[in-house]
Amino acid sequence: MLPAQPELLALLLASVFFVAFAYASVGHGGASGYLAVLSFFGLAPALMAPGALCLNLLVAGTSFTLYWRAGHFVWRLLWPFLVTSVPFAFLGGLTQVSPRAYLLLLGVVLLFAAYRLLSSAPSPQQESLLHLPPLWIALATGAGLGYLSGLVGVGGGIFLSPLMILLKWADAKRTAAASAAFIWVNSAAGLYGQLLRKTVDWHALLWLAVVAFAGGLAGSYLGARRLRGLWLRRILGVVLLLATVKLLRMAL
Predict the structure, then answer these.
(1) Residue 146: closest CA among 202, 102, 192, 99
(2) Residue of 57, 68, 69 lying closest to 28 (CA atoms)
(3) 229 pLDDT exceeds 60?
(4) What average pLDDT score do residues 228-239 get?
(5) Are 137 and 77 in contact (CB under 8 A)?
(6) In angstroms, rounded to a whole number, what is the distance separating the alpha carbons of residues 178 and 37?
(7) Is residue 157 a contact partner of residue 33, using CB atoms and an 8 Å limit?
(8) Distance of CA 32 to the CA centre of its chain
(9) Which of 85, 148, 211, 248 could lock 142 by a disulfide, CB 3.0 to 4.6 Å apart?
(10) Alpha helices of the chain — where are they, by DSSP H?
């Protein structure tokens, strides 16, 4: 799983640290970023999703803890999405897709993630908790995001966050806290489904987990208490765009 050359190994670990730091600063686990990095280093598509979900669990859990301790978590904003997302994330993880279809779907996911990271963040004056979503909309949204999360190997926060902000369901801090919890639960369900039909190189993953935890801890602390991290989001967006181009070329 890991490159044999010391220079490539150092570059991979640094990339995972940066992804974890940047994503955790906005309450995300970083699965789409890990998938982009792993694709750069030639990891087989069949092994990418479980590895990304494992790192997602670690970083999203760290991010949620710090946002929750900072007082940004609102349970009543989150629970309707979780009711349907968890079983559908498990079903998505069980779904078998061809390597070409997986690469195409992953490319679309990364492209959307890059768009959201590169788009302008709302100003603090625009961020306000205006209304909670209707129950049926939250349930339907959770089901769709959960299934896609389990299928591709992401936590779903990259889709939930912009919906919450654009539809004025929550401000940026509460969105980050809710997304981190949403990502963790869906990553666990999706990983369970993935592991029923795949194996993971746990020894190699340990090295990635160490640097991901360090990056996630630093990023979530700064995001919850110090900064907005807009410039990190935009740099990461460029990386995702490059990864999308590579994935689509491989698929086509």
Answers:
(1) 192
(2) 57
(3) no
(4) 64
(5) no
(6) 25
(7) no
(8) 5
(9) 85
(10) 6-24, 31-40, 45-69, 75-94, 99-118, 135-152, 157-166, 172-195, 202-225, 230-251
